[in-house]
Structure formats: structure tokens, C-alpha cells
Amino acid sequence: MENNRKILSLKDIVVKFRVRSKMLTSIRNISFDIYDGETVAIVGESGSGKSVLTKTLTNMLESNGYIANGSIMYYPNEDSKNDPKTAFKDEINLIKFHKGALTSEARKSIKSYNNLRIKEAKTKIGILTKQIEMNIDAINSQIEIDNLTREIENAYQEMASFNRLSRRTRKKMRPIMKEIATPEGVNFLEKTMIENALDYLKNEEYLTEFEILLQEILHKVNDKIAIDSQEVNLLLEIWTFQNQSALKNKTQANKNLKKLRGGTIATIFQDPMTSLNPLLSVGYQITEVLRAHQKMSFIEAKQEAIELMKKVGIPNAEKRFKDIPGKYSGGMRQRIVIAVALACKPKILICDEPTTALDVTIQAQILDLIKQLKKEYNLTVIFITHDLGVVANIADRVAVVYAGQIIEYGTTNDIFFDARHPYTWALLSSLPQLGNKGEDLYSISGTPPSLFNEIKGDPFAPRNDFAMAIDYELEPPMFEVSPSHGAKTWLLDPRSPKIEKPKQLSRLREAVSEAKVGE
Ligand SMILES: Nc1ncnc2c1ncn2[C@@H]1O[C@H](COP(=O)(O)OP(=O)(O)O)[C@@H](O)[C@H]1O
Ligand SMILES: [Mg+2]
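That is the input. Now the predicted structure with adenosine-5'-diphosphate docked in place:
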């Protein structure tokens, strides 16, 4: 890779949706880094969580969704730092905005859902403990109890990360926080003050994000370990947030989200009409964005909009400026959506199946356009698709998702020629370019697991021709194949039997070199 600087870093992301009285988990612990200037493809079957993941990046989840855990750090590059128009010049955790923007109703339902989870788990543990006492299925019962204990911890942690500090805690912590807020204050705290605070925190049933951080810092002061000023700043930031009214936090979060979507991350969706207003001329829609984000006059904006329309390949741009989206073909509309996205001057362009609704020749043109614009504007592109065939043509790296997890990642070459996960094999095997005349195309049997339940073991096991007993019991870790390549399958454990990947995959090299894939 030419450039090894991270621009986005996702860590332990969990996304859930409230569906009536149940909870569905769409993203299960995704951790992934995206580098400045690269094109990453995210590939998986329909329903695997690709769109939810992209919406998570810009906090566009529907109101019944929430990010239950994790962080998404955005790191601005030198260009962005020096550009007066960029909104974010320091690294930020995007998930904070989301939490701030959450309604109090959502907060309440997260709390009650987790309380219910804890209660159910505790009841089950009670029953299992009795079984162990009576010596019934003791080993399995103990494993189950360990799982349930972990679930209780997760539930507490999830609640704590959404909870506001209690009034009592805020009152108790005010004096020490006042000291910490002064320059160097943290290094001159009185011993009794530290002890009192630590005593108080020790007696809390579970700790919020703020309390955990405060506790860590105070322990460090006690042990005379140097304290990072960033840690202290983060603590002060959370403290301010906790002491501001919910309304003020929400307004602030929404303002930041607007900045994020305006100047940092832009998204292109599958259906152009979801992002365009059918009643307004396309030219007007582009100029509006330019005027909002770049503070241009109408005349300037109109000129720039026509430039952008030319750039995305609209013939007779001056004439077509006044047309409403309905007068454009599907492919042309998608070009307009791309122009609107570019008008925001994004650093990161997310394309969520931008060509799925288009016919094949138009698809190839739009892909070429995205490639060309990426180069010209130095964009980082996150390209979402269910079609691995498209990937060979556009991506530097690929992440394969299944049931809300990344199950394999690597360079495009790693994935096409050295895939290690049976699900990736299956996706590759169903590429039409691998089919021989007269033979049926390979397709994956079965369906993905229900997202309403906890998944035991490897979620792909029931559909996996190579599944072993352990796949039904334990979730595999991500095994590193090389520094650029990893796969989450027990087949990579040294104790597993050697398995040959499906024969038809050897034809891939030929298919790609003949440029049959990705055309
Ligand atoms: N607002 C929502 N409420 C409930 N479930 C949702 C919502 N949005 C997405 N999901 C569920 O999350 C899962 C992943 O969806 P999605 O990311 O759209 O899949 P895809 O990979 O096809 O883009 C699906 O099971 C879907 O039903
Ligand atoms: Mg989708």
C-alpha cells in the first residue's frame, strides 16, 4: 500500500435494532482499519449488515437502531488539517455524536432491554447452579454459566455506556473535577480527595465510561504513573457532556453530524432517488449543497455545479441544469448523486451498491467514473457490494462480511487467489465467470442465522461443507494468514485437518487475467 495512514478505525462495533419487544444484532464486533486513499470493498450476501455498517459510519441508522458498543475513530490527514474548509482537524470518535443525538426514549428502552437480559440470565444461572449441585450435566452447565455471566457483564457495560451519571455522583465528583480542570491540576490532587473519590467509585454497582476513566486516572496518580494529557482531556469532555442538558447535547451532536456528512463522509446509495428530490431541478440540488458547504454565491455555485456535472459525465450540462431528476435515466441520475456527493468535498466516499440497480454497460461506466474521481480528488472509497465480480475491478482491499461479522479480509489478490474462509470460497465459486457452458452455477445452500439470537460457534457452520465439531461450539478467532490477510475460521488452526479449496477456484486466475471478472 502506498500510504499506510489510517483514516478510519473501527473497533468492536456492535449495532442493534429494537424490533417490537425483541432485539436484533446486525453488527457483531467488527474491528477494521481503513487507510487514507485506498478503495476498500465490503462484500457479503444480502442481509449481512453491509448497509447497516455504512449507516453506522455516518450515524444514519434508523431511529430503532443504536450502536451498542465500540468506537469509530476518524483521523484527519495533513490535507484536511490544512484545508480551512474541513470541519474536523483533530481525531474524533464518531460514535460520541450518535450517543449525544439519541432520544431519551431510546435511552430508556436500551436500559429496560438490558435489565431484562440481566434478569433472564440470572434466573438461568440459578437453575443451572441447582443442576450442578445435583450433579446433572455439570460440565456443560458450568460452560453455560460462564457464557451467561459474560452476557450479564456485557449488558451492564452496554447500559453504563448509555447511562447519564446520577445527580448524586455528579455532586460528589464536582470538587475533584474542578481541581482536575485546572492546568496540571491532576498532578496536585490531595490524597484524601483521591481516596474519597476512589472509595465512592468502589461502592457503585457498575461504572459508567466516565467513572471507569476517572478511576484509571486516579490509580495512576496514586502509583505515580505519568498521565497522558489526552486522557485528562477526554475525561473533562465526558464530564462537560454529562453536566450539560440533554437538549444541548443533542443540538451539539446534530450539528457535528451535519458537519461530518457535509465535509468528511459522503454516501451514495443504490437507488439514486432516495438521495434526490424529485421535484427540484438537479442543478438546484447541487448548488444548494455547494452554497451550504462552501459558502458560494448563487452565480459561483451555478458555475461550479455545471463544472461538476461535466466532471461526472453529463452531456450538455448547461442545458440539463434545469431538468428534474425524472428526466434523467437511471445511470445519469446516479451520476448526479455522485456530483452532489462531490459538492460536499468529502474525504471519504461510501458507495453502497451504487451500480446494483443499473444494467451492465452502465455499471461499468459508473465504476470507471468512481475510479477516476477517486484519483482526481484523493478520496478514500468504501465500496459496498454483494457482487465479488465488481470487486476485482475496483478495490485495493476486500473485507468479506457474514452475519454481521468480518470473516475474512485481505488485499484483492489475497481474497481472489488465496482465500482461506469457506464462505469466501463459496462466494468466489458462484461467480458466473467460473461457470462452464452447460454446468449449473455453484450456489451456497441454506440461509444465514437469525440475528435475533446469540450465535453459538461459527455462524457459517450449518452451511459449511467443511464444518468440524468445534465450529458448532466455539467462535473461531481471526487467524492471521499474513500481515495483510486474516480469516475467521477454525480451518486455520494448526490442529485442523488440511483441506483443499474447491477445484473450480483454480480457474480464477485465468478468468481474471482474461479480464472476465470485473468487466
Ligand atoms: N431499521 C431496522 N430495523 C430492524 N432491522 C434492521 C433495520 N435495518 C436493518 N435491519 C436488519 O439488519 C440486517 C442487515 O441489514 P443490511 O445492512 O441492510 O443488509 P445488507 O448487507 O443487505 O446491506 C438485516 O437482517 C436487516 O433486516
Ligand atoms: Mg444493503
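DSSP finds 19 helices and twelve strands in the chain.
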